[in-house]
Amino acid sequence: MKKIFIFISVLLSTVFYTQKCTDLQQSINSNGHFNISFTEKLFDSFSETIPEVINIEENSQDNLKLFQNEFPEIYDGKCLKIKTKRYTEYFFCDKDQRDQVPKDRNNTLGKFKLISIIDNFYFFKYSGFEISGYLMYNAKDHSFYSFVSKPIISQDKKILYSYNNDYYGFELNILTLDNYSELTYHLNGDFDIKDLKLTQLKNTDRYSIIMNLIQKFINRDQDNNITGTQYCDRKIKIN
After folding, report:
1. Of 24, 63, 66, 160, most Cβ neighbours within 10 A?
2. Which residues, including other chains, have CB under 8 Å from residue 113's CB and lie 6 or more apart?
C-alpha cells in the first residue's frame, strides 16, 4: 500500500498581523508530497514561467458507446465501475436504469456523460443527489480520479488541477501523473479569486500553483449587527 506523506510549510506574511487575518481555516487531504506556503510574492519571475495549458472542451458526441466498446469491463451500459488508488471499488449507475442494476452492487445513482477524450484520459461529468463534479479515467493505470470542477492539464500532461469557489469556501484539486500524487486543499470562508495560475520552474518539469485569494470577513457586534467588512489578502503557493 502506498504510504501517505504530508509536508506543509507555512510562512505568514505581513498581511496577517491582525487577528482576523490570522484566522484561516484549512483542511488538507494528501497522498504524496506537497509543499504549501503563504508568501508575499506570488512567484519569482526569474525562476518560474507560466506554461501553456490544455482546457477541456466538451463535445456532444455519444462517447459513452465508444467507451463501452473499448472498456466493457469498466462500463456495461448502465454503470461505471469506479476503481481508484485510494478507496474501495464502487459503481456509479445511471439513475434512469436503476431497475436493471443488480441489487447487491455497492452503487451510487446519478447521471454521467463522457465529455472529452485526450490521449489516454477519458473525462466524465457527473451529478447525483447533492453531488457533482468530474471524473478522469486513465487508461494507462486503469484508475479513476475525481475533480471538483473541470480539470486543467499541463501541455506535457504531467499535472492536472481544478478549483472551485462557492458558498462553502475555496477548494483546489491537484493530480501529478509522474508519481500519482494527489492533493485536495480546502479553505473555509468567503473568497474571491484575484489570480490563480500554473507555473513551472525553468528547464525542469517541476510545477507550482500560485493563488491570490481575497478573503472577506463580516464584522458584527454582540447583538449580531454588521459593523464593517474586512478583506484579507491570501497569497498561497503549492508545489
Report:
1. 160
2. 63, 64, 124, 125, 126
Distance CA 204, CA 175 (A): 18
Chain center to CA of 4? 18
> What region, left, alpha or beta, does residue 133 occupy, with left being phi > 0 and alpha being psi -120 to 50 degrees?
left
d(CA 99, CA 79): 12
Residue 119 cell numbers, joined: 490521449
With beta carbons less than 8 A apart as the criterion, state whether 27 and 53 touch. no
CB 51 within 8 A of CB 198: yes
Q: What would the pLDDT profile of 153-198 be if each residue is shown by its tens digit?
A: 999 999 999 999 988 899 999 999 888 899 999 999 999 999 999 9
C-alpha cell at 101: 442494476
Amino acid at 113: K
Pairing type for strands 169-176 and 107-118 reads unpaired
pLDDT tens digit sequence for 117-138: 999 999 999 998 888 999 999 9
